[in-house]
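Provenance and format

Records in this collection were gathered into a single text stream. Each protein contributes a sequence line and a token line. The two records reproduced below are adjacent in the stream.
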Amino acid sequence: MEGQRQTMMGNQAITQGALEAGVRVAAGYPGTPSSEIIQNLAGAADEHGLYVEWSINEKVSLEVAAAASLAGLRSLCAMKQNGVNVASDFLLHLAGSGIRAGMVLVHCDDPGALSSVNEGESRHFARMLELPLLEPSDFQEAKDMTKWAFELSEEISNVVMLRSVTRLSHASGGVVPGTIPQAQGKAHFDHHGTLLDKGHGPVSSSPVVYKHRLQQEKLKRAVELFEDSPFNSYTGPEAPELLVITSSICNLYVKEALALLDASGRVGVLKLGTTWPLPPKLLQHNLGRCGQVLVVEEVIPFLEENVKIAAAEMAGEIGAKRFFGKRDGTIPAQGELNPDIVLGALADILNLPYQARPPEYDLLAQEAAPQATQDRDLAFCPGCPHRASFWSLKGALALDARDGFICGDIGCYSLAMRPTGYGMLKTLLAMGSGAGMASGFGQLGRFGMDQPVMAVSGDSTFYHAVIPALINAVHQKSPMSLVVLDNSGTAMTGFQPHPGTEANALGQPVPPVDIEAICRSLGAEVTVCDPFDLEATQAAALALLADQSTAKVLILRQLCALSPQRKGTKPYDVQVDPEKCLGDQCGCNRLCTRVFGCPGLAWEKQSGKARIDEVICAGCGVCASVCPQGAIIKSERA
């Protein structure tokens, strides 16, 4: 409710700020930790008159948002750090051409790679493309700064980048919401002026040198506004022993560490919300406070290096400084930070004794851990069709016996690089790169390579980035096989719709774009199987491996066990016949629990038998096809 403090997740606070700014159009591609921003805006679309979409990829989502801005409507685009790489081609041009109505690019980084295959930085795009960068440090600021970002965007007629991180996007805190204005204004793209008329002419980054100079002038205007920004603040003594410069969620880590050390009287903290370009007057005033500076940030030393450049330029006024941070190893340059890491750095610099916890605690924790937790690797969910798919692909490659391998891709099925997926993925890089690399491997027969190659892709990833790679493979006659693991939604990030589903982000019916039809239209041979049918799937995979003359596609289609359509339903009742289960005496060496590894299967040490955990079993029945003794029995539910 307006004016009353309430608890919001960081992404929800960003959504609230956008609504208070009068956003009209929002687009994105799902990617943790950013996904909830578009989901929340889609949920508010009817009430506030918005258009919201999940686009086919991040580049297209940025283009959709840019179109709205050029037609006079405030717009937002959201993505994770990897998505900025995908969108950067268009973003480079848009930064040069400029925008009209306020436009904000929210990019959510994932330090520690908690939900990613890398912890790549997106901040450097702001410096490279000469766009202003904002970084909220708490939940209220996430809301307020998002709203201000639209105003800043219109002030400088350019995109503004707003960066969040996982611990801000997915944590929760107090936020006081403001007024959400009524939707107003008609979309109209004015294109009748000259090329140099930024408000009424055609949109382009040409003439390049003139537009580049104009872009840099816009950036200088942003710096002027940053000097007095309420999102930059200093706390601490006038002449501290140490100045900490920090931003984003790291500001909360610094606060907690200083409180635990009781060192607030010795340390000053300059919290920056406007991290590129740095405001030089503000920086000079605060760097002049003392001779020692610690920079605390995630992940790479982006802020640290920019501060050092500024300090070198103003050395005549502020004198020499000693810097601590990632460059000298005081703070690690990889992984997430936390209060303990920051506390350790501060204690070392200030020569303060501190023990995070007594050694006795660690000993007790180690003793209790085996009793309190079950040792289990990351695993596919019970009833996941990907487990069945990789089981069949593993068998097919083994029977083929030519040392074939699978190039992987981004999605839930990335787990197939781990034991839970039988270690089947041998490459795992960017979205779409599995098919692209398989296309390349397929051309190496002329150099003596005789290993068959497969690629796997999810359905959402297929639309996002695999289609160009498949076109290339077909056109170049590359002997590779593409296996599309179609579970009918963007399962990894929360079942957001994609071009293959029958409803869009607003819940409206839309025509699905059929993967099989796309592949056939390109000239690829296509086979469709249910991965839960292990025999048919393995036979289809073997047929693909046997004939590697051209690019072929195998679509393994089965709903995700957690999808809205299947959640809470079980196709089969599954149980273990204890009379048939031979346990350790079976020649399978506990194939069901040790190798197949579905969490719905449990091993009882006392009885020496396998059993079904009925609480988490999804009832797919695949394990009944795995047991060589026929001890696992499935029966259709009435």
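Adjacent record:
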Amino acid sequence: MMEHIDLVAELKKHFGFDTFKGNQEAIIRNLLAGNDTFVLMPTGGGKSLCYQLPSLIMEGTAIVISPLIALMKNQVDAMRNFSEEDGIAHFINSSLNKSAIDQVKRDILSGRTKLLYVAPESLTKEEYIDFLREVKISFYAVDEAHCISEWGHDFRPEYRRIRPIINEIGQAPLIALTATATPKVQHDIQKNLDMNNAKVFKSSFNRPNLYYEVRPKTASIDKDVIKFIKNNPGKSGIIYCLSRKKVEELAEILQANGINARPYHAGMDSVTRSQNQDDFLMEKVDVIVATIAFGMGIDKPDVRFVIHYDIPKSLEGYYQETGRAGRDGGEGMCITFYTYKDIQKLEKFMQGKPVAEQEIGKQLLLETAAYAESSVCRRKSLLHYFGEEYTEDNCGNCDNCLNPKKQVEAKDSLCAAIEVILAVKENFKQDYVIDILLGRETNEVLAHHHEELDCFGSGMGDDEKFWNAVIRQALIAGYLYKEVENYGILKVTKEGEKFLKKPVSFKITEDNDFEAVEEEAPLRGGGSCAVDPTLYAMLKDLRKKLSKQLNVPPYVIFQDPSLEAMATIYPINQEELQNIPGVGAGKAKRYGSEFCKLIQRHCEENEIERPEDLRIRTVANKSKLKVSIIQAIDRQVALDDIANSKGMDFPELLDEVEAIVYSGTKLNIDYFLREIMDEDHMQDIYDYFRESVTDDLDTAVEELGEDFTEEEIRLVRIKFISEMAN
């Protein structure tokens, strides 16, 4: 009888839509018929409707197992909006107290509740298993099913226990849903949930409206991000960073530059976190800077850009996070900043994990690096990864297709690579195959005696970058495949064997070169930045004049690198002056106004356009370390004890203390100097700095001679700068 239901009428009645999307209707009919169902559907395709609508039609309560507390709350609220009955949907997770849980149980037993969301951790608790045994269950839905597989990007061990628990509670049809799954993960899910006979519905993973671009990550990344956002004013966007610290820092920098941004990560107190999320949904906030904890199941249709400040750990993660852009089918710009250093950093984080987990993590990272570096159509690469073929030559909506690289013929190179893979008995990974091609006698190669192979060194005419490109593009073309189970061992396909017997043209594009990008020189040293020489000379004169008036050496007022920076970015008020290296709030107040006046006059007289748009406001570094050093010195703790307690050596501590006094904070270290140094001895060094034209340490060591150690000189210099300048 379930088969003959008018589903479109039900859809209209409960959700107000007139038509289904994609294969939603077929999925729902399959579930209503009592069959196990497996759904692979990209973000934005309407996965949740596939279990929400049948739960309202079928008798009993549907159990939805989901890992995300934020998502449960969102979906329960959404379901309650569609219905007059508040009890229609509930969730049970660690955030509820006992009386709330009792209310949920009452609603379920009275038959009011059609959908119950449960976290997998809660599902394993005896009390819930016992309770659910008494309930009429319409079906089970496992959302985010990729969490079952160690090869998924978000493995949760408790997901492995879902099947045994379902068996304990009682049989009912099962629907598993995921928005990202490689063929390997798909197989894992079916095996683990014991649903090998399930009907599989797979939608295309292609999101034609998303624009994919990978940019080199350089020292000026903050400036690049700010420029991008300023060029897209008023648009909603998400920026993903890997660490909570970076999230906080970047959100602060964006706010300082007039961008309406808020941070979001799991370490924030939950009230602020929910507030920031709601403000983003309500469009009180334009940009959310977040760790990947954000956006899970957040249904904001008009996110216009997703920026990856750090490269994600896997392509599944990348696909899911970029997939939060343009869900309404409109513009969605996905910009990723990439440097190989980040991949190495992520590899370091994996040390200390079990070996199998490290191997899997490494493979996933390699795939991500390959995607970023490749100059093949981004769509083609992504879809190939998810086991889908994309046949267009040019998608017209990614950086590689819009700026195509020249293709080179690589027929002979592919033959050479295939010969090596076969010669090593299809038993090794890509990097090893490349070692053989390049004739590298590594320990592993020697251990297998592979330096004796005829093909050893057959690819020495080209470099590693070229061979990586050949192998990556041969994988996409179907001449080679990777055995995922064995962590990426290369095998030759039937097509590849045919190719070797009878080669045809095989054109490749060389990889993008991300390492050749020069880091921007920091603001130091005359030659490295665009110093305005006239202004620089005028600033030096002003410094000299002030130093005579105040009877202090010029460097006490501002050091040379600070003047160079001023002559580069033209600060004209105290706030801007504090962005200059070596200028703290104290110095800006004390000496700033004269310098700002001079710079402003110079700009007006010479009609100089200040690089206002390029000057990124940095946030004063309120580093906890500096604050705690200042507090310890105020309490008169001996400096060597401070260094020990912070796990620093003594010169490192002096570096920090110097940075504090040079940027204008006053510190009194007399209590320490009295302990370790004779009064006259100290006075000699102090007088030297008073007379000297430079505060350079090497010069001081040389001029003061053998009687004084470098540490003594540094300590007295700290006292001198603090008293004279601050």
